[in-house]
Amino acid sequence: MPDLSYALNIAASELTLAIGALVLLMLGAFIGEKSARLISILSVALLVAASAVAATGPLGTAFNGAYVADPLAIYAKVAIYIASAFAVVLGGGWMQRMNIARFEFPILIVLAAVGMGMMVSSGDLISLYVGVELHSLALYVLAAYHRDDLKASEAGLKYFVLGALSSGLLLYGSSLIYGFAGSMRFEDIAAYAAANPGPGLIFGLVFLICGLAFKVSAAPFHMWTPDVYEGAPTPVVALFATAPKMAAMVLFARALSEGFLGAHDQWAQVLVLICLASFVVGAWGGLAQKDIQRLLAYSSIANIGYATLGIAAGTEQGLQAMVTFMTLYMIDTMGFFAILLSLSRSGRPIRKISDLAGLKKDRPLTTIAITILALSVLGMPPFSGFWGKYYVFGAAASAGYWMVGAAGLVASVVAAFYYLRMIKLMWFDEAPEGQPKTDKAPVEAQWIGWACAAFSFPLVIVGLTWLEPLTRIAATGFGAR
């Protein structure tokens, strides 16, 4: 039994969330819908507690290598759980304003966090698939949570159907890899790949990459992203754009760097193509968008291309660049969606880019926050997004992919158009005649947005002094070269 107690101690953060979610579910079932606010508060406390448990827990492997607790997993879990807690806070205020407060919403986010924690700690193909499906099942429900909204129902259905397709790709690729390598464990697969990098194993690897690329919405597997971002409730999209992407990118890096060390030249070629496709689709696709959430969907596709470039480098420096970039991107994106949730006119949420015209007159501080976050996502120095891209481009150049980095730089210039257009509307255009002023902003959304903007600028330099050492520790020991 000491081995079991050790394993349970290593997986304590997931156990904390799973048991806590079951307790909260029972509490909500007995108290009813009146418990929605209480359960939201308890869910935030549970996620914060789980992040503390993960940060202070022991390192090692458990369950015959299927579960890994290393610095990368610990770092990712803390970031994921904190982002999930912010999503619960934003969702609680949103549900009250929409008069659809239900206790299931925060519990679904907690259950999704359990799956995301499993993803970043996966040590074999089975735990990889279990983690992906556990978090996906909760996200399918969250996408269609506002069931009286036709767009939300459509978003949930599209996400479910296309997510099932990606799961099929993952299963098919995993079965091929197992058939050739004879093992599910990444360590054993790596040993086989180094000795026998045959076409069968590479074929399975390509399917695995395609399935994971689907989960992170990298082009050309991005087709679900714009519609889901547009139709799903805004706090749910805030979650989609942050925590699950961090989890999937870490899983991406772990599966490739630990499972296919000897086949870097093969999988790097696939990732480079995905990077280039994401740059093109994300930058040029966003030019024609009129809905803010669809615009942010295309922005996320382009930014996933930058993060994937860090993995393609196949080095410890590349992994550190990816983790740093994703952390800064999560902060910017969470702030963007928080600000979006704080904006409405006559009870109608502001969703169109044209609705931002003249915003400086009645919401000057919010306009400053949006400007900072837009310039940061764009990658303008000295904002936080610039430093994320700086690390990625540096890692790519060091690994010999400076041409791909140059393509990413061109994509950033193209994407500058739709961010600068947004800034122009807020600062220099006049509001249409008769347009009502913005409503009183929800406190929780407003403060989260301002806090994220403050980190993006001017506190980013202070933040990097502790973030950079943490990401360096998290990336230690990884790299295919």
UniProtKB/TrEMBL annotation:
It comes from Brevundimonas staleyi. The gene is nuoN. NDH-1 is composed of 14 different subunits. Subunits NuoA, H, J, K, L, M, N constitute the membrane sector of the complex. NDH-1 shuttles electrons from NADH, via FMN and iron-sulfur (Fe-S) centers, to quinones in the respiratory chain. The immediate electron acceptor for the enzyme in this species is believed to be ubiquinone. Couples the redox reaction to proton translocation (for every two electrons transferred, four hydrogen ions are translocated across the cytoplasmic membrane), and thus conserves the redox energy in a proton gradient. The keyword Transport applies. Residues 122-413 form the NADH:quinone oxidoreductase/Mrp antiporter transmembrane domain. This is NADH-quinone oxidoreductase subunit N. Its EC number is 7.1.1.-. InterPro entries: NADH-Q_OxRdtase_suN/2, ND/Mrp_TM. It is found in: Cell membrane; Endomembrane system; Membrane. Pfam families: Proton_antipo_M (PF00361). Belongs to the complex I subunit 2 family.
